[in-house]
Amino acid sequence: DTGVSQNPRHKITKRGQNVTFRCDPISEHNRLYWYRQTLGQGPEFLTYFQNEAQLEKSRLLSDRFSAERPKGSFSTLEIQRTEQGDSAMYLCASSSVTGTDYYGYTFGSGTRLTVV
Amino acid sequence: RKEVEQDPGPFNVPEGATVAFNCTYSNSASQSFFWYRQDCRKEPKLLMSVYSSGNEDGRFTAQLNRASQYISLLIRDSKLSDSATYLCVVNRGGSYIPTFGRGTSLIVHP
Question: Which residue in A14, A18, A32, A82 could disulfide with A49, CB within 3.0 to 4.6 Å?
Answer without folding.
Answer: A32
